[in-house]
Every structure is written in structure tokens, then in C-alpha cells.
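fwd from M.: "can u put these together and see what the complex looks like"

so here's what she sent:
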Amino acid sequence: MTDSVLTQLVADLLAQRIRIVDLTQTLSPEFPQIVLPPEMGQAWPFRIEETSRYDERGPAWYWNNFSCSEHTGTHFDAPIHWISGMHLPNASTDTIPPAHFIAPACVLDCSREAAADADFLLTIDFLRNWEKQHGRIPPGAWILMRTDWSKRTDPVAYQNLDETGQHTPGPDPAAVRFLVDERRVLGFGSEAIGTDAGQAIHLKPPYPCHYYMHGSGRYGLQCLTNLDLLPATGSVVIAAPLKIKQGSGSPLRVLALVPTPSDVPAHRRKRIGTRPAKIAKRRAAKKRL
Amino acid sequence: MTSPLVRPPRKNPIPRTRVASLPPGMRSRVALGLTAAAALGRFELQVCRDCGRVQYPPREACCACLSRRLDWRVQDGAGELLSETMLRHSFELFFRERMPWRLGMIRLDCGPVLVAHLHGDCSPAPARVRVRASLDRAGQAVLIAIPEKDTPNMADDRQLREMTCDPKFRKVLVTDAKTALGQALVDALVAAGADLVWAGCAEPWKKSPGFERLASIPQISLLTLDLTDSRAVRDIAGEIGGRVDILINTADYHRNFGIAARNGIEVARAEMDMNYFGFLRLAQEFAPAMRARAADGQSSAVAWVNLLSIFALSSFPPHGTYSASKAAALSLAQCLRAELGSAGVRVINVFPGPIDDEWNQALLPPKIAPGRLAAAIIDALRSGAEDVYPGEVAEDWLARWRDNPKALERELASASR
Amino acid sequence: MPRAAYDDVVIAAPVTRPYTRYSIRGAHWFLAGALAELMRRCGLAKQEIDGLCVSSFTLAPDTAVGLTQHLGMTLRWLDHIPMGGACGIVALRRAARAVQCGDADAVACVAGDTNHPDSFRMNLATFSQFARDAVYPYGSGGANASFAFLTAYYMRTYGATPEDFGKLCVAQRANALKFPHALMKKPLTLDEYLTARLIADPLRLFDCVMPCAGADAFVVLRRARAEQLGLPYARVLATIERHNAFPDDPVQYRGGWALDREELYAQADVGPQDIDVLATYDDYPVISLMQIEDLGFCKKGEAPDFVRRHSLTADGSFPINTSGGQLSAGQAGAAGGFLGLVEIVRQLTGQSLGGAVPDARVGLASGFGMINYDRGLCSGAAILAAP
């Protein structure tokens, strides 16, 4: 039976009845990196050094060396990343059961709220309201908070820092506890630079998403994009971090399998789920201040 | 009378760009004593310890008593112009391209007779003059006689300008204009007559007080530049590298750790990645174009300025890994000086003591104010010097280091306990 | 202690090879040519020449030593004189004492250089430590700049005018037009001299010598030997040399001859008024005027007046540089230090190739050279007499 399900999966993919949506930002030196106070250890931004490019350093080949933090770009947080998860078993990227790398996703559309308030906090009320429309959040699912924050292609706007720190949306402590305790989710995903809100240091406990999720052996995804192309329910997310020994996380490719609505004709199926080239160009132009 | 410098017309793109030539650069080792002093902006001659006779040209033994105990001493340069000529034919390309050239024969009040470049405002012989030492385009010391009293537009003298790196009518890149020093420097360059100043900053999402105001100054062009990003440096060089006449690398990653005070190499690595590798990236991408434009008319590529630190000479253990990164940068700056030397582009190293900024907040005064440091950098560009030690701490440490570097090492180690 | 006389030491066989502006040959080629002609003129076989004195700027990396093996000569006396325009006088002095004391029987003195398009510049750049450290970096004008300083100072101090220098140059050009080996073949008028292009103010084109390739030579032997060979000769009456004279003069306005001329004339037992023909070292006109003063023909500062009062051609009231001097014959490197001496020997032995000075009995050849820094360090002079 499994055989025919997988055969069907392949056939559906080929026929674009299932499309693949890339939820990953491109790893490049321009992509903003999380900023901590200067006295703290810093996460390296993505940097890439050319090794050779069909030249005297290597005549027939092109390759690079790169460096970054485990938490650079679109990345995965393992439970060991937080102090609350430091003693849990199977808590690092090399020991997490691979079965957890493929899971259903629930997409919570907070884009209007986040547009109005950069410090928007996701609450239990919002969750209950969402469940009224889309049904109960199943166990073992990713909760993806869509804020359209990935559309802020200007790094200054994406970081959104001022004299009081960073201002990005995230969940409040009660909402996280609800997701962990009442819904037993797999993890939390965000479009912003952290799963927690930018001002989450002032919440109780500070950084509640990290604290509670990782403290109960759950995971995080950050710097996601294209969440606006996903339905509220029905997607399956593939998120497999690099198998780093005692890794606290890693940059990764996050893909969503999304069923194409049945009323979409075949010739249109391919175009859905890809980001037009125009926006990539605008992003490059926005390197200047 | 020297006419004030006029903004040069826009470059005609059709003719070939003139390739740099240099004045004769060979000197005996003993004559390099003159160069060592001129590098610091000083005019020094050998004085016999036994009979007091002042020597010139530099030599191995006193021309009066044969004593070999000759000490380099600062001279005031006062003297009399005995004879002069206007040279109209030269055997070297550098001077052939710059004819006519005024030369003088001067007797210093302290004794020796010397041949010197002669400023256009000096009265015909016989006349009183002042003699100064400057580095020329070959990076060697030469003597210049200037009028006894300053004259209007003196710095614009055509021959004098060949020896200096004056920012007037030039285009300058300041790699980090976000810090207090960077802003002060950008302001000072505009005041000194620079045509265009690219004000660089990394991480534009980190706001810095005072930086926004720079956007409204017409000569300033804001620029995102992160020296830790190789591709970005290459891209920026591709855009503006062919127009940069003076490059001032102010990017500086400064933390306050020795070895034991901080676990892990991450901070030290960040210091090296900015202060040493960032400099290396910048040099690889910007130096070739500067070399090619070293003789490109009145506003040629002329200087590369490195903001080092007096800590580069001798480690300041509380900032030990930072000191090491600045020492690495100093060594690389010497390498760059050798590579740019054949094109006549001067590498100027600035060694301030602690700057009065956030990362030196815990250090006791005296600390050098950003405005004063910026002024010292402008002065260095206008003078013929290449090693600059601005402020009391820098001068003090340099004197101690030259006198006995091991003693300085001990003094710094015990001061930090 | 009084200087010893020269007994019967004589100088003979004046050789000047044709000068050329540029040559692909090395210095060895020109020196060998001069030596070969010298041997022919003397009737001496190579092995009969037992002493050799060499001067050359472009022989490097060889010195006189290398030349002996290069030319296959075995010698019992050898010297190398790196003294530029004074090398002829100094070579004569060295060779004369060697012959006088029996250290050698026949000393060949030869000076010559090649000239490639860039060799002059190369020589200038490494001429001396002081020049390299303290002169060449300033404009790289070579001796032109150094002598411009001296000329301007001399003009300001003593009132010499361009016309005074011009008269000397015009007269020497007239002399040169009759001399077959001179490079300059066109006449020169005073107006052309005065309006020629400036090289280093106040020096103009015709104040400067033209570097070229060539060689000069002579032989020094005992009178008996010269007569045995049937060689016309001139007697050596007196010589002087001096190096780094008057070091405290801030600008050079006098040379070593001023210190030693009394002894020169005393040893020769003649006075300036007895000199029938003069050869000055003329790298620049101002130095010729300096030599006229310092060798006692007039007081210091009066040479402009002297020049105005005399005619300086071979047939004039005071013949100077009768083969044209370097200013019109050309400066073949070190051969410039032999040119005047060789011409005096010709005049005194009736072998003039150009304009002959009638009844020349006593001649004076002067040497000067080696602008080590800001002044010529070497000076010398020799008084010769017809047999």
C-alpha cells in the first residue's frame, strides 16, 4: 500500500497536482544576521570566499568556501539551542529522529496585524479564532506564523531596529504554552529573524517561544518566506537540518508540498508557487541605502 | 606668487591614461636616515657627537674629525638660498614630464650646503628660506626650500603638490564613516576641499547618532560597505574603484580582551576578519585601479591611509587580541606600501593612542578626540609624511618603543595588572 | 720638501680617435683602437709597452686589470685613474714618476668611453654616493643643474654676462671646425649661442657638451727612448694636482689650482705670461673662466674682462682649446680629460690637426672633474715645453 502511495506522490508531483513551494531565503552575504549586544558572542553572517573560478587557482572548476552561524538565514533551531532544552535526549541536529523532518503545517495569517504593529504578539485568542475557521491544530504539526515579514527586502526594514532594540512580531508566552501543552505541536516557524518577538526579552519568561518549545523538545524555523503561498492547512513541510555533531541548528532548505486546487488547469499549475524574477531584482537594487 | 589650485576639468576619456613614473629612488643605507625622519614628518641631519659638526649629505663618519658617532637630530631648516636654476631638461621620465623644475642651492645656518627643490614663492637668490624634508613620489626623503614666511596658497605650488597627497579636488573613500571618527573625518575632508567623499558603513540597520546628517551634504555619497564580505567589496570596487584618489580605511573592530578573558576564538576572529582580512580584501580590490591612476592628471590616485593603532607596535594586553589584529594589519600595510610604491601611491599609517570612543571607555585619559584625530589625518595627507603618531599617548609610546622596545613591553604588561 | 723635477721625462704620440655620437661597441673597443694607433705612431710593439694607465666610465665591470687580459698585455706597471676631467693630468703625473724612477720604460696612457643611448643616464644615476643620495633625486638634470648653480652664482658675484661665455664658445667652435675629429661641424654665431634653448637657467644648449663615444691616448717615456724611436715629444716641466680643495667654500668659485699654481710655475720656471697655448677643461664655460683666474692669467673675478680683451682662437691673442675643446669636439667620457693635454702636445710638436698656434713653445693643460656632490673635486695642471 505504501508503495502505491509513494508512486502516486511521484505521479502527482510530475503532473503538478502537488506543487513544491520553496520557503527558504537565499543564503547571501546581504541577508541580515541576528544582532546581539556587542558584549555577547555574535552569530556569523553568511560569508563566501571564492576558491577558484576557471582560473589559475583551478582551471576547469568553480567553487567556494563559505562560513556562517548555525543560525544564519533560513534555519532550524534544535532543542539543545536553549538552556531549557540542554538536558533533553535527542536534542541536537544529529540526534533528532529523522521522522520529525517531514510534518504537516498550519499557517496562521497575521499579515494584517503585523503590518499595523511590528510588535504584534500572537495570543491564545488568535489561535482559538483560527481553529474556529480551520479546525483543531493537529498534534505533530508545524505552526507557521505568516506575517509577510519576508517581503521586507530592505535589510534595515527587515531588522527594524531602533534605540529600544528590535521590533518584529512573535508569540506571547501563553500562546506558546498552549501550543506545547494543549496541542503538542512539532515546532514554531517565523518569517522574521527570530521565532520570538523582537522585544521578547521583556516577556515573562523572556523569549518564551525558545524557552517553552525547546524546553519540551520542540523545534524552531526562522527567516521563512513564501508563507503567503501556502493554504492555512494541508501543506506538508520538509525541514531537515544538516547533521552537525552536537549542532544547535543549521541553515537548511525548507520545502512545502502543497496540493494544487483541483480547479486549476494543468497549464497554470507550474506557475503557482514560484516567485517572479522581478522581486529578486528589486532585492538586489535595495542593497544601497 | 602661487596661484590657487583650480578644479581640473573632467577627464577626456579618449587619450591613454598616463602611466606613473617615479623620481630616482636609490639611496645608500645611511641616507635612509633622512627618509626615516621624513616619514615621521621631520627634517633631521647627522650631528657629530664629538665635535658637533652637522653633516650633509649623509655619511658614515664626521667630515671634520672622522668620528663615527653621528646622531640624527631635528633641524629647524633655516638657511640662505645661494644660487638657483630652472631646470628645463632632465634625464629621468618623472621630471621630463614635469618640466620646468625649480632647484636651489642652500646653505643652512647650521653649516651644510644642500641642493633642494625650490618653492615657486621663494625670492631669487640671495634670499632667506626654510628647508623641510618630505617624502617624494618614490617614497624617499627629499629636501624642499619654502619661503621664510608662509605665502598665500603655498600648498598649491605645483612642485610641492607632487610630494603631498592633498585632498583638495580629489575623491576620497572613507570605509567606515559611521563612527565618531568616521564622521569627523568625512566633515574634515569636505572642509579640506574634497570633491566627493564616499561615506561607507556596514550593517545599515544599526543606527549611529549623527550619521544621517551626512546624507544632506552635497559632496558626500553614502555607501553600504562591509569589509568582511568579499563579494560586496569587489562589487563596490567595480562601481567606484576607478574614481578613488584617496582611500582611508577606518573600519575597525575593537573589543577589550586578552587571551584568558574570553573563551573561544570568535571575538578575536571577528577582529582579524575586519582589521586584517578586511584590509586585505580592500587592498586586492582597490589597489590595482589606484596604481593605474597614480599619474592621472591633477587629481590622481595618491594615497592609501590605514587607521592602525599604537597597540600595533607593542601589545596592550587588556586589548591583546585587538592589538594582534592591528599588528597584523601593520605588517600587511608594509606589504601594500612596497606594492604601491612602484606606482608612487603613498601608504600612510596612522597610529593613534586610544580614541575617545566606546571601546576605550574604561581607559584613563589622555585619549584622542575623534575631531583631533581626523585633523591629524588631513595634516598627514597634506604633509610629506607616511607614519603618523597623533596625540600624547601615541608620541609617548613611540618614543619609549624606539628607545627600548623590551622596556615598553614590560611597562605595558605591568600597567595592565 | 721641494718637488723633484721631471728630468728628461717626455710625453709623445698624441692620439685622438674619431668621435661618434653613439656606438654599439663597448669601451674596450675604443681603448683598443687608441692603443693600436699609439703603438703604430710610436713604432712600439705591444710587448714593448710595459706600463699602462687607463681611464674609462663605461669599462665596468672591468678595470685596467681586466683590460690587460682582454688585450693580451703583460705589464710591470698598471694604474686606473677614475678622475674624470683631471684624468689626463693625473695619468701623466703617475706615468712620469714611474718612467723617471725606472719602474717602467714606456707607459701608454689611454682614456675612452662608449656611448649608448641610455648609458649617460645610467652613469649619472650612480655617479657617486653623494650624487645618488643628494643631487640626482632633485630634477635628475645631471651636471647641467650643478653647473647652472655655479654659473648663476659666478655671474651674480662677478658680473659675467652670457656674451662673455658665448665668446668662448664661439671661438672654440671656430677652432673645432678645423679639427677633423670634432663632432660639431657647423659654425656657431654669438646670436645663435645667446638664443639657443635653455637647458637649466642660465645655461643654454651651447653651454653644454655633447656626450659621445671615442678615445684619446699618449705615451710617456724617457727623452732618449723617444729620440731613438724618432718620436716628436714635449718635455714635462711641472705638474700639480689637488682634490677637494676649499671644502668650506659654500659654492665653488675657485678650484685647487689657486692653491698650487705658485708651485707649478716655480717648478716649471715660467710665468703665466710665458704660456703660448692653453687647454682648459671645458665641461661648461664658467669652469674655463675659473681656470683662467686660478691659473694666474688674471685675478679672481676678472676672467670676464680677460675674455673680452682677448681673441681665443688658434690664431688669436690667447689661444684656448685649439681643437675645439669638449664644447665643440664632444665629450667622449673620460677621454674629455685627455683631449686638452693631447692637443697641447700636438701644438708643441708641430703636429696640429687643425689650426696651429704659431711658434708654440710652452703650453699649459688643465684638468678638472668629478662632480661628486656640488663641486668638482679634482683639479690638476701640467706645463709642457717644446724640445
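replying to her w this: The first helix of chain A runs from residue 2 to 14.
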